[in-house]
Structure formats: structure tokens, C-alpha cells
Write a structure and sequence with these properties.
single chain; alpha/beta; TIM Barrel; two-stranded antiparallel sheet; 12 strands
């Protein structure tokens, strides 16, 4: 038995020797464990002297994962749905319209083709169009009906949206007709957006933000606003300021640009007076999640080249 420097011949010495030996063994074990724990390094690290360093490969992998997570977080932010109002394609066949929408990767529309306006819209035509849209993976999120004036107009509008599978209608109505819409749409679980417009040579009931707000009065949230940025500018009003005033009631937006006030000549988004860039930024930054439908009324026989530019302009800002 080895001597550890204590007086092993005495009982006291032997006891001290045992304690000392046990203590040293305990210290040795603890040092070994501490050393082993200290030498356990995260994967992808190396030890140089007293410093644990991350390898270049581990750093690149970790940095890439962080960037991917950041992009996913940004992508998860709610944003509006980009679509097109089909009035844009009024000069081409429906089959061509569907092909053009597919080429642009547009998946939502507002049905606003003139042959579907009240009171001449035919339910059979609506059903046929729905079939084409379904086959192309396109959804009619809204229906632009025109003017609702009578109970018959209202009944037909409800039938059209049911056939389309839509939950929203844009159009205009005044007085008792608007109250009738409010009552019926509330019951049906639908929404109606009053649409502002500019007309040459006559005053329209809904030209300014204030016109729209007065009409809404004490109506239920079922009735709100479909704000047309182009027509707002044509009437001489700032579309961005209009968005701010109408925001609590905003259901849908028609994204359109015009050359000047007092006229409705359409131009490519971002090249006119309707502040398209600021309108899109406002909708994005304030978290609008509804449909933003591009409407381009120029070149009805061949709208696709200009519409492609409008879609590209918008997507870059989304």
C-alpha cells in the first residue's frame, strides 16, 4: 500500500492517510470529469489553446439558416391578394382572357365584364364561366354588378354571386336600395362595396371620400367601399388621402392610373397622377388583406402587353 506522506504507523495517521487518499481520488475524479466536460464542444467547433472556435462551415450553415428564417418570417406577413378586374379584357374572348390570366399567374379576379352587368347578366353564362375559371385554377373573389335599383336587381345579384362562388359584390346603389342591400347582405353573409366613379359630363353620387362616408352612415359592416384609385384621381382627389379616410370601410381596391384629373384616360401604373406607388405601399404597410384588382381600360383589343407591365410594377412593390 503506497504511503501518502502521513504517519501510517499510528491510528490517527492511518485515518488521515485514508482520508487523504480518498480526498485525492475524489479530486482526481472531479478533475477528470471537469476536463472531459470542458472538452465537449458543439458540433462544428474546434479548440485552439484555451479558445473554442466555430468552423467556417458551421458559421456558413448557421448564417444561412438565420437568413432563411428571416425570409420566412417576412413572407408570413399578411398581404393583399393581387387580381385583375375582367373589364380589362372586355375586348377579347373569355377563353383568351383565361389564357392571359394564367400567363400572368393571376389566381383571383373581380368579374366586371360588361356582359355580366345588371340587368342583362345570364346565370347560364355565369355557370359556364365558373367552369372555365375552376379548370384554370382562378377564383372569382368579387362580382361587379353595376347599379342595384330594385328588389329584382338584388335577387339576381345574389344568384350571380352564388353561381360564381364569390362572397363580395362591388357596385352602386342609393337611398332605400342601399338599405335593402344592407339588410339582405347581412342576412346572406355577403359584403357590398360602394364603388366611386368619374363620369364625363355629369356628376356621380360617389366621387369623393366624403360622398362614400355619408352614404355609409349607420349601415352595418356588410356595406363598405370598393375604392377605385383611378376614378378618385380623375375626380380630383388624392387616392392616398382617400385611402386613409376610407380605411375602416375598405373592402376592395381597384388599382388604376390615369393621365390627368377631369379625364379617365388610363395609363400604365406608376406613370399617371393616381400615385400608384404610394397606394400600393400604403396597402402593404397598413396590412390590407383584401383583393386589389388591377383595372386597365386602354387597349381593350390587346391589353396583355400593358397589363403585364402593370402586374410587374405591382408585384415589385408587394
Amino acid at each position: 500500500m503506497p504511503s501518502f506522506g502521513w504517519h501510517a504507523s499510528s491510528r490517527t495517521g492511518r485515518a488521515a492517510s485514508v482520508l487523504t487518499t480518498t480526498g485525492r481520488r475524489d479530486i482526481t475524479v472531479r478533475r477528470r470529469v471537469t476536463h472531459e466536460v470542458a472538452n465537449q464542444r458543439p458540433p462544428g467547433t474546434v479548440r485552439r489553446g484555451d479558445t473554442t472556435m466555430i468552423t467556417r462551415r458551421c458559421f456558413i450553415t448557421s448564417f444561412g439558416a438565420a437568413i432563411l428564417a428571416l425570409r420566412k418570417a417576412r413572407g408570413a406577413k399578411a398581404r393583399f391578394d393581387l387580381g385583375i378586374g375582367t373589364y380589362t379584357y372586355r375586348g377579347v374572348t373569355e377563353d383568351q382572357m383565361v389564357e392571359d390570366l394564367k400567363a400572368l399567374k393571376i389566381q383571383k379576379i373581380e368579374l366586371s365584364s360588361p356582359n355580366y352587368f345588371l340587368p342583362s347578366v345570364k346565370l347560364e353564362a355565369v355557370r359556364n364561366l365558373r367552369t372555365k375559371l375552376d379548370q384554370a385554377g382562378i377564383t372569382a373573389a368579387s362580382y361587379f354588378c353595376g347599379d342595384i335599383k330594385t328588389q329584382g336587381d338584388l335577387d339576381l345579384t345574389i344568384q350571380v354571386v352564388r353561381a360564381l362562388g364569390a362572397r363580395h359584390v362591388s357596385g352602386s346603389a342609393v337611398g332605400d336600395a342601399l338599405k335593402m342591400i344592407d339588410t339582405r347582405f347581412s342576412r346572406e353573409g355577403l359584403r357590398f362595396g360602394i364603388h366611386n366613379h368619374w363620369f364625363r359630363g355629369r356628376h356621380f353620387e360617389y366621387e369623393s371620400p366624403e360622398d362614400l362616408l355619408r352614404a355609409l352612415g349607420d349601415l352595418s359592416p356588410a356595406v363598405g367601399v370598393t375604392m377605385d384609385a383611378g376614378h378618385m384621381a380623375s375626380c380630383g382627389y388624392d387616392p392616398v388621402q382617400a385611402l386613409d379616410k376610407l380605411w375602416p370601410h375598405l373592402q376592395l381596391v381597384h388599382l388604376k392610373d390615369v393621365e390627368r384629373a377631369g379625364d379617365d384616360k388610363n395609363v400604365i401604373l406608376g406613370t399617371g397622377i393616381a400615385k400608384s406607388h404610394a397606394v400600393i405601399e400604403t396597402l402593404k404597410n397598413r396590412g390590407f388583406t383584401g383583393l386589389v384588382a388591377i383595372e386597365y381600360e386602354a387597349e381593350p383589343q390587346n391589353p396583355q402587353p400593358d397589363v403585364t407591365r402593370c402586374v410587374g410594377f405591382t408585384r415589385k412593390l408587394m
